[in-house]
Design a protein that fits this description.
By secondary structure, this protein is α+β, with helices and mostly antiparallel strands. The protein is 27% helix and 23% strand. The protein is built from 18 helices and 38 strands. Strands 8-9-10-11-19-15-14-13-17 form a 9-stranded antiparallel sheet. Helix 4 crosses helix 17. The two termini are 47 Å apart. 56% of the residues are buried. Pfam families: Glyco_hydro_92, Glyco_hydro_92N. This is GH92 family glycosyl hydrolase. Residues 1-19 form the signal peptide.
Amino acid sequence: MIKKIILPCLLLSSFVASAQQNLVQYVKPIIGTSKMGHTYPGATVPFGAVQLSPETDTLSYEVNGKYNGDVYKYCAGYKYEDKTITGFSHTHFSGTGHSDLGDFLIMPTQGKLQLNPGTADNPKAGYRSAYSHANEKVEAGYYKVKLDDDNITAELTATNRVGMHQYTFPKSDQSHIILDLMAGIYNYEDKTVWTYVRVVNDTLVTGYRQTNGWARTRTVYFAMSFSKPFKNYGRKSYDAKQAYRGFWGKFNQDQNFPEIAGKKLKMYFDFDTQEGEKVKIKFALSPVSQENALQNMRTEISGWDFEKVKTQAQTTWNKELNKIQVNTSNNNKINFYTALYHSFINPTTYTDVNGEYKGLDQGIHKAEGFINYTTFSLWDTYRALHPFFNIMQPGRSNDMVKSMMAHYDQSSLKMLPIWSHYANDNWCMSGYHSVSVLADAIIKGTYNGDANKALDACVTTAKHRDYEGIGYYMDKGYIPAERSGVSVSNTLEYAYDDWAIAQLAKKLNRMDVYNEFIKRSNNWRNNFDSASGFMRPRLADGSFKKAFDPKDTEGQGFIEGNSWNYSFFVPHDPASLVEVMGGKKKFAARLDSLFSMHLPDEFFAHTEDITREGIIGGYVHGNEPAHHVAYLYNWTDEVYKGQAQIRHILNMQYKPTADGLGGNDDCGQMSAWYMFSAMGFYPVAPGSDVYSLGSPLVNNAVINLENGKTFTVEAIKQSDKNVYVQKVLLNGKEITNHQIKHADITNGGKLTFYMSAKPKK
């Protein structure tokens, strides 16, 4: 009788854990759109190729031939503080510290046709419009705003490859849809290389745009369909006078001419509208062809039911969000599920519905048996985002590694991606961190491709002597300061990457490779100055650079950081770092100093992406190099201090407001840090199957794994005051080494933290 009662209870418990909840309600895409978060508020679906979002200004990348620092504020195209909207474009980065994209800007207007965007101070001088946040609605997969100047309501939603617009017009015989093919993010005078537009009929337009920006050979094709016929259309060309234009001058190409080409074009489409009439647009993208763009459109959105597409987008988001179900306060739920939302935006789909994509060799390829992805911001995302995928999105992680291998195969330089973007490598930031992503996926059993071929690609990339000082690094064991402005950070990051390669080689029993790269992984020691206790630039003659300030971010050999933060960047061997810094007691004291010191403004005055909000003492959470540092207390006898700092970071650096992120979200890295830490564990060294334990913020979390199993985290007596861990049990057995393994999660089970207001010393 007892057995009959227990079994249904167990089944019911399992059902409740996996039952769908309405989690979209907790996603606030407006978080991070102010200050340094650089997120966008518009409509996209998980890992979608289309990111349909508003732009709020038209700043140029350069002014008078020099870099315009203000453009940095517009990496996502939208800045919460602005009062006007210039239109809605279809491609955006989420949370990056550099930018591109902003393709195919659409703006609805009425009245006298204006094809210039106007200015923020005088929006009525152009097609831009004033707006109010009070009339703005921002949800996962949906964006709505009232354009005050023309009394038009704009609504946006999306599928994977298609953006859908719905514009509610007033009564007018002068309603217009503007398609600005010159607009873009990080724009400049000659960014658009060529544009082509073909008006197929009175509801269908196709074309393409090639740009030279962060990606230098990026071509995006489109198909644009209207829900009602336009009565007139035309273009304005802003091209400079060319030496030779052929004989196209025989035609009047400015009005109702079906084939347009040039560098600088703007199109307009005229309509008669009734009061409250909705004009809808489907706008599909393709990396391959106009034909593929049209096929993407017809496959993904067959009709004109905007609400159906919106519901489909939000249902898709809800399914993804339900992969983790947490019990915590309302504000923490908003932070958690917005972080989960942001972490599932990038990388982005780079494959048409027929499997085709354009490769680095500019040829057309077909992804056989996988989805090809782009937007790999690897200097950021190898740390927590890709390890997060190996738990939450193993199928997609497998495809992402295959995408990196395809990148390698198509690369003329035979290198794995550094920063992959639309069949280009932007070569942004340092390290060769794709090797970390590959090693982590293979070691954790995510990748089902040829692991030995992946290792060969890692080795070849790591031996590319003419890239970023690798030759010096291989010969000397460090990069001389005279040869690189980021010599120290490059050496440290290469050393970690080499350790990841060594772990992969060890798993594959290729001990010759293991021995070579485990030796290289010790190169961090060559930049450690035992006299000062800091990582320090070293000259070619072997001496340390004399002019040195560990607080300074300029001219000290580091990228996006200083020596105080980078001196802790040995994630693969914290025990040895503790030893060279004088042992556990002195190491803990160094960590204490980092979190408690005062960093004067002068030491980050020249960094674009760090403000006071992103700093705790001297610890910079708004940039990634120190993201693992709070967990290093686990290698001391004062573990409780790390627990307190982790909770402090969670509460200080993440808030449910537009300015709620302490730095760039960086394609989901900041968000992944939050979710890992909120659940009580973190991958200090990806490439290992070990996670370090911290201090969970949630009361309870149920991870619904792709293999059908569940992993539960429970924090007993957790509260804002009870941040200290007294005891941890894994499936009822006490953990004493402050870590769990990947298999502990994927096999399913329960991790229980017992929390208290008093530290366990």
